[in-house]
Amino acid sequence: MAMTSTFRRLTRAVAAAILLGTALAAAPVLYSQSLDIPSEKWGLSFGNSKEFTGLRFNFRDRGVRRVAGVNFTLWMPHKKDNDAVVTGLSLGVVPGGGRVRGVHLGLLGAGADKSLTGLTLAGLGAGAGEDVEGV
Asked: Which site in 11, 22, 49, 57 is 20 to 30 Å from 41, CA atoms measured?
């Protein structure tokens, strides 16, 4: 009886280690990918889609060129995303991009490397590297 429960625990630990190792090995590749339905250019996107129109959910933008529609991003964009153009409704803790146009709702803040245009509501502050236009 004790041997069986020990074997089960060991099997679970090995399986968890293999799963964790696989996830860590795949993380760099998966970090820059997205699941886009029904197309890679429009519709519904989960992940770091580079050019997309529609409803998009992502943790943090990296290497994004253009997003139009509703963009829900939890954290501020990567530093190298200063050319990204985000148009539409931006939601998140700290949404941003290179040029951001439309309605921006940030729990802590909202920002743009170049220009921030439209209606911006942010908890602590909002700003842009060059121009801020709107409310």
From this structure: 22
Please state, in angstroms and rounded to a whole number, the distance separating the CA atoms of residues 34 and 37.
10
- Ordered DSSP codes for 38-83: E-SSEEEEEE--SEEEEEEEESS--S--EEEEEEEESSPPPTT-TT
Domain boundaries, the chain: 1-31, 34-134
CA-based radius of gyration for the chain: 20
21-37 per-position pLDDT tens digit: 666 555 555 556 888 99
pLDDT at 106 over 90: yes
The answer to whether residues 130 and 116 touch, using CB atoms and an 8 Å cutoff, is no
Separation in Å, CA 86 to CA 22, 47, 115, 128:
34, 15, 10, 13
**The pTM is what?**
0.72
> For residue 90, what pLDDT band results from cuts at 50, 70 and 90?
very high
DSSP one-letter code for 10: H
